[in-house]
Here is the input.
Amino acid sequence: MYNLDEYKRLTSKYCYYASWAIWNKEKEDDSSIIDQHLDQLHSKFVLVGLNISHSLAGKAWSNFHGGKHDRKLKYACNDTKLRGSYITDIFKDIDEVSSKNLKNILTEKVINKNVSFFNQEMKDIKISGDTQFIVLGTPTSLLAEYFDKYFKQKYKNHIIYHYHHSYYGLTDREWVCGLWKKLSINKNFDMVTKKESAVHKDGMIFFPSKI
Here is the structure.
């Protein structure tokens, strides 16, 4: 969906805020794999988070790669129609875990700046009327509150709300299969997780005993 020049422009503008739904199954934090699959990148789906919980390592497209719960995104996306989707946060460059502290940071000026940034971001990745937003939060979450109030007004796109992948109330299976159900993705969770957890050693493939 993007030629090399377009991808370079996106990288220069967004690579330290966002990422793409492609993971190296042997090393989840290896975001350089995205450069190797330019032909698979698209904006049919845009996965949306709230903000980063900790500073990124400074590697291009490293957001959502290598975090404690990012394996769930990998399981859900890496071998389905979600592969290559765009992933971003609505609030950029705000490193904060506490929702209470985050609310104190989000002044009207900060919100408006991020809304403008998000709108330009969506234009640059070339979303269409068929693009679906996947909000990584339930309809009652803080993310949904801000997304609904400030960010979605410009768009008539279909929006899917799903638990954040760090939510402890669901197992990996429940989280992934729940998202698949909402997107009519018919996959076998056990087969996908086994494939995505493979470790290659000296030309042979080994699978962890536990997932």
Residues 24 and 30 are 6 Å apart (CA to CA). The longest helix spans residues 108-124. The chain has a mean pLDDT of 91. The chain is about 35% helix and 10% strand.
